[in-house]
């Protein structure tokens, strides 16, 4: 029987925060292999992402709030063994998609372990850790979904989509770290947010998010899909409203860069971005 701490630290709900990359990539595939698209969703969101969360929690043994969990329980060996089993199942299932997809899944798992493993610990390096996250959760995942969900298993994946996916992840990831500076410092970790400081984090994320939206605009306009971009940008507008409201509070008092506000930002951004890309995906059915 799974222990309560194991279930909590897998953070299954956290996969919702990464769903926009999947929906974005799927919405751009010319002809979708529906069966493979569903299998890819299962592999990523119910195996790879939770396993990565669990392994990270096993290595970190957090005592303060972490992404999506205000009061984390202490992990046990069960969590470690379960993460290995989930990874093995993910790799085996990925063989039904393609060898390219399997290679990417293995690379993703390896990067995730290198990020958390105490012997390597990429997360303690602000630049290296940040790049690892945005490349694998962004560009590599976008490649996997686009390639794996396509009928012909093309590897001619649009670079603009991969770059945009990484920038979208990169525009929000530092905000998930902004309340953890002290806890991370005690653990010997210097995140990109800690390196930038409270105000610097907001300025940096605003610039990265602007770059992501600029490429999205170019992407849709060059494909003659201006209406889609306008719809997408409109649905993402609440994100900007909350972001600047929160930034204003942090400018006045850095104590407002806390867990509660960070989670509100994360949840709102995920809902709006998921809704936006889901709308673009559904839109295809009426064309």
UniProtKB/TrEMBL annotation:
The main location class comes to: membrane
For this UniProt record, the keywords arranged alphabetically read as follows: Membrane, Transferase, Transmembrane, Transmembrane helix
InterPro entries cross-referenced by the UniProt entry? UbiA_prenyltransferase
Cite the GO molecular-function annotations of the record.
transferase activity, transferring alkyl or aryl (other than methyl) groups
Query: Could you tell me the membrane topology recorded for this protein?
Result: Multi-pass membrane protein
The record's listing under Pfam families reads: UbiA
Coiled coil start-end: none
Q: What is this protein called?
A: Prenyltransferase
